[in-house]
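Reply to dn_fold:

You asked what the input looked like. This is it:
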Amino acid sequence: MKLLHLTIIVVLSVIIITDASIAYAQQEQATGLESMGPPPVQNSSKRFDIEVEFAPISIAVNPVTNMIYTSHTSLADSISVISGKTNKTVSVIKVGKDPIHVAVNSVTNMVYVTNSNSHSLSIISGLTNLVVDTVQVGEIPRDVLINTKTNTIYIANELSSTISVIDGKTNNVVSTISVCNISGAESTFAIDQAENTIYVTCTGPDGAIDVISGTTNKVIDTIPVGLDPTNVVFNPTTHMLYTANNGDYTVSVVSAKTDKVVDTIPVELFPTVVAVNPDTNMIYVANDFNSSSNKLSVIDGQTNKVVAKIGIGSGAQNIAVDSSNDIIYVVNYASNSISVISGKTNTLIDTIPVGALPTSIAINNITKTVYVANWRSDFVSVIPMTYLDLQTVPEFTFAVPILLASFVSVIAFYRIQFKK
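and this is what came back:
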């Protein structure tokens, strides 16, 4: 069987109350969708679970409509739609073969799903929960990136090493861009929406970032970085990019203004996922299964120095940052848990058990709720932020000099690999 690398990027958008969101609320009330699905089950003092289809692997939230979407691979080939109001599954939508990544445009209330073995993108109306279009893209489509300002959708096609560019108004492919080798990247994309520029990680020994103009849909530069970069994030406040270089245990710091590497930061072995807080200028890096170090490295974006190393679970797949509470969540695939970390003190404050093999996380900052997809448990774990113990747990932290900061925004990543 093929090797799949799956990634999700979740960015909490500005909340815009649209006619579509109002209409959806009216439609939900009229159709009685809330009655579908079994009731949530309380499985821990800090979480409850919502039953969904087989093998939930990717999850996304629309904070405007308070709806949650999770994709299901293998036998199910579907999307489960969960009401955040009732905590019940309200719809199951059939899509293409082996859906991998689900993403939501909260401005247009549209949902996008990459179908890896159908080589297609399913486009779903969040208002009706119906597939409104299926668009053929490249081979093994994986990641989805949405520019909400231009209503443009970008699809990373792993096998063909291309980017499909789709107009969100017409659902037509308007360009196909050949890029570097993107096979194996944990997070293919980052975007500067203000400048309409897209950044793509190039994996392998010739690690680099391809820079794409969203205006011309052409590669305009290639920036060499470290060995085998697996993840890239962009800080819109400082205009800096960060890549987790799995092959040489470093993070490359790239200026988006000059397209040059300005620093290289040593971190723990096999860094895989990275997240950034644009408001506090702090960067968070976790390591994959090959690393013996189950630590979250905290980097000060002003000094480019590691200021803390925090003990977490094993097999980190995701990092999510909750802006309103200054909390970081790390999804521990091998530990079946979520590490909860204070961004104010850089200390572990809680470890919450979830289902088997958690892969993906999404946060609704409006309702103060965290959602986790558990690949080998057919349910989504729900963690209300009010359940959290905000006291520190010092025995799991590793002291280094700390430069304190607070943080904002939600950026999440995940990865899972299969071999047969």
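Residues 19-31 form the longest helix (13 residues).
Hope that clears it up.
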